[in-house]
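Researcher: Quick one. two chains, 911 residues in total.
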Amino acid sequence: MHTELDLIKNEVKIVNEADLDLITKEVKIMSEMKIMSEVEGLFEKSGGKLLTFMLGKQEYGIQILEAREVVGLMHIDPVPKTPDFMKGVINLRGKIIPVIDLRSKFEMEKADYTGDTCIVVVDIKGKMTGVIVDFLSGVVTLEKNNFEESPELGSNIRTDFIIGMAKLEKRVIIVLDMGKILSNEELLQVHNNAA
Amino acid sequence: MNKTGNKKSRSLKKRSPKKGIKEFKEGLPFHRDKLNLNLVMAEQGEKNLRFLGTILNDLAAIKKLCDEFDQPLFSNAISKIRGIVSAMVVDEVEYKIGLRKILKLHKILEDAFEGFLSNSLLPESFEKDFNLEPMVQTSRKKEEDINNKAVLQKLDKTADTSSLPLFITDSLESVEKVQARLLDLENDPENIELVNSIFRCFHSIKGAAGFLGLPAILKLTHNAETALDDVRHKRLKVTSDLINCLLEVRDAIQRLLIQLKELNDPSLDDSQISHVNIEKAENLLGNFLSDSNSSKIPSLANQSVVDKMQKPKSVFGKGQNIEKDKSLILDVVRVPSEKLDELSELVGELVIALSILSHNEIITGIEDREVRDKLNQMEKTTESLRNKTLEVRMVPLEPVFSRLARQVRDLSQKLNKKVKLTTKGKDTLVDKLVIDEIYSPLMHIVRNALDHGLENEEERIASGKPGVGNITLSAYHQGESIRIEIIDDGKGLNKEKVLEKAKQAGIVKDDSALSDDQIFSFIFHAGFSTADKITNVSGRGVGMDVVKKTMEKLRGKIEVSSKPGKGSVFSLQLPMTTSIIEGLVFRIGENQFIAPLLSVRQTVTPRKDELQSIHDREGQCFLYQGKLLPILKLYEYFRIEPSFKDPSKAMIIIVENGHDSYGLMVDELLHKQQVVIKNIKDRFENLHGISGGTILGNGQVGFILDPEEIVQRMKN
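Model:
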């Protein structure tokens, strides 16, 4: 709409669909360039700090700034007509927050919830989502030389969900791109498949 | 066309070589036809920038042709039209008004082209006709424009911006008031109180504008004041021209204010916006100032307007008015609306928390009298706190009604129909959210009523009605809801056509048992209104889906009734607030749901012998008050494992959808409760049949049912 308007305002010469599309695309590319890449965000905003947790035997990390709080497992109300990994919604002090099970999102084996199982509440652009993890392991600080972008991984996890991999002494931490995992497209795509 | 009749023609041959004319004539029709087509398209719909863009292109092409073959008359005329189109693009000229002017000018141009193409002659009157047509001028008053530009730029940099936001909100309110009062004044031209009131509004804007150093607004308000002062002293009569001109001045001020608001908004890119807006304002002012002056001059021919404008005399008079004004000002605190939203959310949470607490087993087990008393007291206080908070969010409908009144006025002039608009209950309080949303559906209904419902004067008189049509807008509270009615006394909806169309669209198969109201409700059917035929044939249905969608969003209902030859009534029922609803809590499996009480008719458990099977599937229908109602099994729809699959053990909630009833089958009814609606749709977009979530007394999350959507989806 704005592109269209601006175009016409600048003493209209040509307005046809093809040109508009082109301009829209250009604007889009430009705006994408402005958005800090996830890796830059990790080091510049979160200072390389990760909140790490376990799923099975693998350690995962998310940017510390994306984590809002960690709560123990609480009553989850299932939401009808949603895919398996969508466990339902919780009442977090009066706010209704959807909760997903990362294990089933990553198509890992199901595991019984234990006393260590907890919900990490992440905040992506003001939208809060709970993520069920097996065990919270702590906070680590990465240096750039510990970090490797787009590493080769086995087939058990989709590479487009991860920002990269960190190696700290003996630990190997997969850094997750929560924005992508929790994006509406991602959630809806599976909705449709399930429906 | 009459111009071609008495034309005294002159030849243009002298101006350009013969060969040029021939080529010009060859090139012209192509562009002219294209322009015609695009104008027709533009006339069909709402403002569409793409059409305007192509029209500009067409005009540019014709102008180029004219320049090439040295036809300055055409060229100038086209430049003028282009000026208007450009002004329309940037909203300097209201789309419809601009379009109307363009079409008029285009007609003159068209006639000239016709004459020129047939005999190379130009109607003598062309130039005169064209220039006589009142123009939306953008190029005159150059000097003033430059001044204004400087003015606004100066404002941008030096004005004390801290008090600006308050000024803008205040003044925007005042211009709203001005609009309402002006429309009242038009109906009651002798009412000097109204004139004074309008005067005061302009004056308060003027005062603040002067203080803040906004000469553009100052000037406009000053001119308006001068005119109104003349009215007060009976030097000027209230005519519809004067009202027109004052309305335009008001619009100009409003736009300037809106631009100021944009300029003042730190989140916007300053450099870009200010440039555009200064130009906008500059043109605007040129137009409207000249307009307002020109319309005043004829009636004040023997008095010097300029003189009076500079006389300080009137200033004293205004001083007294300020005194009067002050006594009327209520003690008011301004609060940003988002703070209110936060407040109501917090109060909502408090209500929930308290309700959880008071349902707690340990608490309910306490017999101690003091604890119980205090708990009761707390519940009462919380309840009134909640009511007060809701009250704070309530605002009168007046601004919506006055905008509609303006719409009716403008549209009736355009359509050349005489209409009397009556508004009742403009002080009715509604939630702020409703105010923001309700204008557009009401506008569509009113527009339809005017455009298609009301007949023109001759038709009305021929059918024995008064020549002036009536539209009534009324609003009132009815229990826990608000009713808004739009009543017209036009020709009514065409039942046969609606029915025919509904059959075509497959909405209805068997029409034998349909009541009139049932038939009319089809106009809201999704996809129904977009069909071209119904709008052309019966003339109804445009924008009705907008109405329907907004009503759904606001959890309201809409009904329409109509009598041929007598008119139609559109009746909107809205909940008092959109954040809290009264609901029936029920359970299916582990899930708890809430059915809005507004849509629940009754709850029953059918006896075994009342159940009927259809297509070998058991328990598909049941007998209720002698009618067979379909049972919609919610556990199937939501894919939940229920406690009961046998309808005679479960509960049936009977809901109404349009004029049909359906039974929703659930496991168990729990209780009735008020719930605070929380939006969950942004996270669960595909969750059809559920309109929101809420936190129930036990802390669990419940889902608020959208019975209408469920019925729609399960029927298919």
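The longest helix of chain B spans residues 270-299.
Researcher: Thanks, that's what I needed.
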